[in-house]
Please model this.
Amino acid sequence: MNKQGFFGNWGGSYIPEILNRTFERLREEYDRARNDPAFWQDYTNLMSTYSCRPTPLTFAENLTNHFGGAKIYIKREDLNHTGAHKANNVMGQGLLVKRMGKKRVIAETGAGQHGMATATMAAKFGFECTIYMGEVDVLRQRPNVFWMEKMGAEVVPVKDGNRTLKDAINEAFRDWVSHVDSTHYVFGTACGPAPFPEMVSWFQSIIGREATEQILAMHGRPPARVYGCVGGGSNAMGIFQGFLGNEETELVGVEAGGRGLDSGLHAARLSGTDASPGVAQGYKTMFLQNDDGQMLETHSVAAGLDYVGVSPILADLWERKKVRFESATDGEVIEALDLTMKLEGIIPALESAHGFVQAFKEAGDLSSDDAIIINQSGRGDKDIFTIADAFDDPSWKEFIIERAEQYKTNS
Ligand SMILES: Cc1ncc(COP(=O)(O)O)c(C=O)c1O
Model:
């Protein structure tokens, strides 16, 4: 990152003047933390005693035998407390909030995993907490809303725009501008104005640091490929940082292909041709937007991947051809999920399953001496309603109808 927060042509910090002082303080605190080895030590201690770190690297023997090529390893971010990689970033920012002496945190959330992690951190550190979530996502991820509220957070459904992640981000910025002194905005992914892209990626680098050591211990050499799904880009940045600059390893980011790249209903920013450079939500990247700069509607079966922008760090790595970008359709995602559950007894989040799709397409073409790593960013339990719908599961439907009848009779 250069002084103005740019990564090549991408990034920057396009913020309203009223936030200048707040961002200056955040940058100072972040720089201090980065240059203080004791901070990283505190952070890893917290993550090992509160969030099951280091998360394991699992050898997926049955999937490996099924595809008959590279050895498939899965980095298990689903085993983090709160069920996803989001906790890595949130607990780190929580430590910074304590250092800044603020008492309130706000956050946006799509899949609800970042909201869950933020509500958890706020409960642990004693902060007041408000979570902004698009109304569509509230419906898709109702179990996460339930837990956030139970942990004491206020969840505000956002009714603007297409009522998903970008609209939640806009609303969180509105709140921040009105409460700059008391409040920290816990940005959930490697996007937004500097220093968020770099800072979030730094906290998430814990994934790549662990994976590098684990794959060497288990396989004896670096992997041929590493796969990560890409919403805003934080879990992918997290694991990629362990292998960037390593000639032996190809990095593959997998975006939401939704109903197909020709359908207009997807969130492929770097793997398709529909995105163009733009400035929005405080930073410059490739956005899915029309010629007037209005954001386009996006779609994915995974609530955490249907964002219009993408990390400026990934946009730079894409431009410099350091990361290859692909996309997976909703249908392919459900098939990959089905296979992983049946063969490994592991339930990836719908977001993470995008990485599995691409790895499954390519594993058979590699040699059995090669290893590949898939970053399983989260667990799929939160997606039970969407997955049950996708499988058109009759007994689940019956159960829901029965429960609804019980609620009706008892109310
Ligand atoms: C489990 C999971 N994986 C991936 C993502 C996508 O975010 P990112 O690209 O920042 O990792 C989300 C977002 O909510 C998520 O919940």
Summary: Residues 255 and 268 are 6 Å apart (CA to CA). Residues 84, 110-111, 113-114, 189, 229-235, 304-305, 349, 351-352, 377-378 surround pyridoxal-5'-phosphate (CB under 6 Å). The longest strand covers residues 250-258. The mean pLDDT is 96.
